[in-house]
Predict the 3D structure of the following.
Amino acid sequence: MKKTLLLLGCWVLASSGYGQALRLNDQNTLGWLVYSGDHKLTVKWALHTEYQWRRINWVRAPQQQLARLGLVRTLTDRITVSGGYTYFQTHRYGSYPTVPGRPEPEHRLYQDISLKDPLGRLTLTHRLRLEQRWLGTRANEGQGHVQDWEFQNRIRYQLAGQFPLQGVTVEDGEWYLNAFDELFIGFGRNVGDNVFNQNRLSGGVGYQFSDNAKVELNYLNQISQHAEPDAASGRPVFEINHGFRLNILYDLDFTHDAVR
């Protein structure tokens, strides 16, 4: 798997470098507000809830929104698996918008596996996620009802790290550093030229109020390739976006022991 990901990364870098002179770049400033929570149902099972409110021009205009619901199963102290449903919506934004009019919806199913690797004070987390996506297209130049759905597959690999600033581990009332990089690769018959879908690089500082409550403020850099080239020139379009991501992480414990 590591060799495969390395080869994919080299291929993406080579492809993007070769086409850099021909492509169109669309730059946007991001402001992403994210809530995420894993609510414990039993010792091994948890309910995942997530909502992302994505904005551009420093939150002045809408970009996307995401709502996710899933189940998380803890296999060992290091390994968890999860799966569920995601509703996604994209608004018209940028110099080369992919949405012609009203926001367009997307439905997803996802499955993933996460592996934690403690390396001294640093904790690394590997996550591999598969997504089955149904992308909606509206009639009447984007003003009518959704008339068509296109199915696509996507695989995502994320490497995340957390480093305590005030001790060996992150304790209540302490600060920590966090960062992640995530690569998105499309595959299947409907992907076309959009094999490299996007890459996200983020890092910043977090504060732990308690075991179940954290807040993080990160810098976010996103490189995203549009599925279709620019209609006027036929050239590929890449979004080069940067801004901030504010994460609010809050977990609840619904187990019998917590009630007692």
Summary: The longest strand covers residues 146-164. The chain has one domain: 2-259.
